[in-house]
Structure formats: structure tokens, C-alpha cells
Amino acid sequence: MLPWFSQQDYPLFLAPMAGVTDVTFRTICKELGADVMTTEFVSAEGIMQADERTRKYTEFTDEQRPVGVQLFGADGKRMGEAAKKIIDWKRPDFIDINFGCPVNKVVSKNGGSSLLKDCPLLATTARGIVEAVGDLVPVTAKIRIGWDFDSINAPEVCQILESEGIRSIAVHGRTRSQGYSGEADWDVIDQAARSTSLPVIGNGDLSSAEIIKQRCESTAVSGLMIGRAAMNNPWIFREAKHYLRTGELLPPVTLEERWTHILRHCRLAISSSRYGTERHTMTAMRSRLMTYAKGFPGSKALRKELCRVESLGQLEDLASANLGRE
Fold first, then answer.
1. What is the per-residue pLDDT across 41-51, written as a single tens digit (0 to 9) for each?
2. pTM of this prediction?
3. Which residues are the active-site residues?
4. Would you kindly state where each structural domain of the chain is located, as residue ranges?
């Protein structure tokens, strides 16, 4: 059993999300109670070609541990070599394989969720990485419940991955054809969890502490993975842990606390220099800022202003103006 499952009843994972779960956001979510996290997915081929931009996606801090690096690709041998390079660089706590991404640019390269419709290739891909990594670190995987509604096969895939030496599996409760629309099917997630002796982490539509507790109690999962809900409400980790522990809901996060968090997120992003200059960083943060602002007083007008933010000073002025309306 991986140690993060034995340390607590239901560890809470931050889902890897491209363009979202960078080092800065992971730092914030860890502080707010996330137990385990994974980097944004990285291309195994990019690692093998020593692409510096790709390598940046593998960065993490020791404070974020346990943390894994997620790889995508469809050549187990090459992915195994890439995994060993990453382990030499950073020594993550685990390597995660992306068998779930629905995005066309990944699927078109036979990566991500495309392997769910080719189980023999999925098996050899997993085997190649597990054999290459050996005892250095555990290998985990993230899948969807199937390619489409006519080929839901998560329980079968979990059994295949277990036989190939994978140590835990996160299951997103949608098919690839759904993308992020419709509802996550937690009945299939539960079936997948019961089909294997491995820890299964459930993922999909975990938008509140109450829902998280209900999924813990009604399914056989060993952990929960929170994705899009954390983009607007990273406090969900703190709220869920408190509710699981006490049965009591924490009071809502105040508007002032939300603005304080937004400003800190931007300051950390600027200091990380990941996006370059302050202007480039604030431009890159615009979509995140608009997500944070959902539900704020006057949010429609505010989001139009956030679309034009180019400096931290502009954002500080918006915060002051909007807190004055509270």
C-alpha cells in the first residue's frame, strides 16, 4: 500500500490540469489541505528530446510532497526512459501515466484516453514504464471510464493495470467522448474500485464538502481527486477535510479572503518568473482571474475588467474598488 493511503482514511488529491496546476497553484492547494498532487502532464518525447520547456513542467518543491510527475505517450519503452530521466532530475514520489486526457492534440498522437480503446497497447505501455522504473518509485495511472458510452471498460482496464504492476489508479467518471460535459458516473467508478485490490481514487463533479463525504461513504474508493472545483474554490480541500473529520461545515470564505488569495496567487506567479515579465504573467493569469471572480458582486462587469489586466497594480486597484462595494 502506498504510504499516503495508510496515513489517512481518504487522502484528497489535486487533479493534474494543463495550464492550471503549476508549481504556484500546487503550493496554494497544499497549504489549503491537498494531500497528494501531480504535475501538469508532460510529453515523454519532449523529455527524451531534452526540451527545456517540457522539463519545466516537471518542477515541484519538497513542500508539495508526496507529488508525482505525469507522463503521456504510447511507447512504453520511450516513456520508461523518460521516467528514469525525470527520477534522476527530481526524484518525484511517483510517476503517473496519463491514460485519460481527452484533448485532441494528445489523442491524435495515440496518447491519453486513446489507449482505452486499445487495451493491449495500454498494457504494454504500462509494463514498459513499470519495468524501466523498477523499484525506484511506484507507478500510478489515471484513466476515464471508457472511450465512449458503447465501450465503458474501466473495471477491465483497472484489472489490466494491476496485472502490469501499477500501484494505484485514478478514475475520472466520464468517457472520452463526453469531454467535461454531462455528469460523472460514480456507479462505474465504484465498480472499478471493486474490480481491483489496488487503491482507486474517484474523480469527477466533486464540488463541495458534502458531495465528497457522500462519495466516500457510498463507494469503494480509497481517495478523492478534485479538479475543476479547485480552480474557483481551492478552499475545498480545507472544507472537505474539516467536514470529513467533524461533520461540520466551515463558514463560507469571505470576499476579502478571496481577494487576498487572488492577489497572493498573482504575486507568487510573478515571483516564479515562469511566464516571464509581470505583464506576461498577468496576461497569462487572466483566465484564472475570471474563474476566481465567478459569483463575486458585479462579476459580469468585473470579469470584463479582468480581461484587460496587465499589472499587479491594476489588480490591486480592482480589489480595493470591489471590496469597497461589499
1. 999 999 998 77
2. 0.95
3. 101
4. 3-246, 255-323
